[in-house]
Amino acid sequence: MASDRAVEVEGVSKTFRIPHEKRATVFETLAGALRKNEYEVFNVLEDVTFSVTEGECVGIIGDNGSGKSTLLKVIANILRPTKGRVAVRGRMTPFLELGVGFQPDLTVRENVGMYATIMGLSNGMIRDRIEDVISFAGLGRFEDAKLKNLSSGMQVRLAFSTAIQTDPDVLLVDEVLAVGDMEFQQKCFEVFKRYRREGVTILFVSHDLGSVRRFCDKALLLSHGRQVAFGETGDIIDRYVYGGEGRGGAGEDGAEEGLEEKSKVGSEESEGPQTKPRKVLLECSQDSGPRRWGNHKIAIKDVAFFNKFGSVSSRFNSFDPMKVRIYYEVNEAVSDPVFGIGLYTAEGLHLYGTNTALKDLKFDRIERDGYIDLEIDKIPMLAGKFLLSPAIQNRDYSITYDWIDKYYSFEVISTGRDDGLFEVPCKWFV
Ligand SMILES: Nc1ncnc2c1ncn2[C@@H]1O[C@H](COP(=O)(O)OP(=O)(O)OP(=O)(O)O)[C@@H](O)[C@H]1O
């Protein structure tokens, strides 16, 4: 292993074999002895290769079940790889299944002593640090309580507080920061920052992309056990959120169009549609399809959301740019139409509305099919699913040409640590 490498993972695959046939009784065992047991094979990791330099922090991201925890367990030597090789230089502390080994009938204090022993701390160190551990976990008042009387969150806090007393060179962390309240999470961040300053190498599995973006120099993206990408954190998070095709493939237009114009009308005949519009939904009842009304002289054909790479996407990083494109078709030429959108939470709470009239944009007469773009410089919502209603009306809103209510949706992935629905630009001063 190269001298500056702390962790090397080379061609690692992991397969689980789940037996199909259950042999619970003696008879079943005897009767089945001559038959070959059948197994279902799960390839949970396939050919994963990457290396981590000393002092680097690497985030491991991917959908549920993509193999992140299994990979950490293989690196921690809890699981043996089916193929491939892992090398770790220095003392490794895994924060994986925190609290394994806790005894429910022992007190908090007794458990800390026992857990610290499992984590490899000497008796002297445990004696010196036990108060710190309990106070870091915020369990001073509970030190003589039996563990079984604590909430599961309290137990994880206690396990985390004990585990950080070790002096690791390489730290493996699985979602620890997802536990506990904001105050405890803040304390965890402080500990990780200290470890980072001290040059500890960290591998960090998390669904919290904001933490990964802030803490990690690099990231590894897994999908169905395969390594999709490994590299600079921002690039890998983009790859995860926007997908492989979300970065400039066929039929994409963002590069040429740029993002400078705030709102623009295009013509499908001249430029062609940039995404395949869904079927026109002119006839739809209340109980099937969207709520929709209007005389459809101009009808909305589709709405597409474009990401910063100019590709159609349904997921966005918070604070990234977004372009909303409304495709329309003209059944009868109209003068001076107003295009608008309404933005809602998934529960239907109205967040924002705007239209071309409010932004002083005027069209004389529209005779041909086309599209109009609304460009958002920075998505202010922090996380969640959002709904959009596109609408076309006349200037005094007395005629609705088309309105499709809360039908189109997109998801915003959190990339920050603030809490709530949207960002309020602000600063603290003392
Ligand atoms: N011991 C096991 N036996 C069989 N299958 C397993 C075992 N451990 C994990 N798996 C399967 O391996 C796959 C990957 O699991 P893993 O926990 O590594 O994914 P993950 O990316 O960490 O998921 P999550 O984000 O939900 O924690 C899952 O389909 C899981 O069911």
UniProtKB/TrEMBL annotation:
Annotated ABC transporter domain residues: 7-249
Leader peptide range in chain numbering: none
Gene Ontology MF terms: ABC-type transporter activity; ATP binding; ATP hydrolysis activity
Record flagged with keyword Nucleotide-binding: yes
Keywords noted in UniProt: ATP-binding, Nucleotide-binding, Transport
Keyword Nucleotide-binding: yes
Assigned GO CC terms: membrane
PROSITE patterns per record: ABC_TRANSPORTER_1 (PS00211), ABC_TRANSPORTER_2 (PS50893)
InterPro entries according to UniProt: AAA+_ATPase (IPR003593), ABC_transporter-like_ATP-bd (IPR003439), ABC_transporter-like_CS (IPR017871), ABC_transpr_TagH-like (IPR015860), Bact_Polysacc_Export_ATP-bd (IPR050683), P-loop_NTPase (IPR027417), Wzt_C (IPR029439)
Ranges for region Disordered: 248-278
Superkingdom per UniProt: Archaea
Pfam families: ABC_tran (PF00005), Wzt_C (PF14524)
PANTHER family on file: TEICHOIC ACIDS EXPORT ATP-BINDING PROTEIN TAGH
Family: Belongs to the ABC transporter superfamily.
Protein name, per record: Polysaccharide ABC transporter, ATP-binding protein
Species this chain originates from: Methanothrix harundinacea (strain 6Ac)
